[in-house]
Design goal:
This protein is of the alpha+beta class and 126 residues long. The chain contains four helices and four strands. A four-stranded antiparallel β-sheet has the order 1-2-3-4. β3 and β4 form a beta hairpin. The longest helix is centred in the middle third of the chain and has 16 residues. The model has no long low-confidence stretch (mean pLDDT 81).
Length: 126
């Protein structure tokens, strides 16, 4: 375990497999180093008996200090009973605008409520 700083992140050399660097000051804050060289800040915690991880953002876009602050927010939510990973999963499972448009076209295409004029515009949602 090391303190995650710009120097320690830049010194992390990618290997054959991904690996983690964990911060010695903030439990649950870490850096994932991919074999491709990509480096991603993350927060790790237990919620509902499961080990969960939430990506905070890539190194370069975020500094270690900004990422640490974001990790503190996620980890404090967990201490208050929240689960940022389940919220992320819920958002991913919600329908997209494309899916809403497709459902609209399927449900109302040809209906007498004035939606019939949209019948030939299927390409708008493709």
């Amino acid at each position: 375990m090391v303190k995650i700083t710009k120097r320690s992140v830049d010194a992390a050399v990618p290997g054959e497999q991904e690996f983690f660097l964990w911060d010695e000051e903030l439990k649950g804050f870490g850096l994932r180093v991919y074999p491709s060289g990509r480096k991603m800040y993350l927060a790790q915690f237990r919620a509902g008996g499961r080990l969960r991880r939430v990506n905070i953002g890539p190194h370069g876009v975020l500094t270690p200090d900004v990422a640490r602050t974001e990790a503190m927010k996620h980890l404090s939510d967990v201490r208050r009973g929240g689960d940022p990973a389940s919220e992320r999963d819920r958002r991913k499972a919600s329908p997209t605008m494309k899916e809403f448009g497709k459902r609209f076209m399927e449900d109302y295409q040809g209906a007498e409520k004035g939606y019939a004029r949209l019948a030939g515009r299927d390409s708008l949602i493709s």
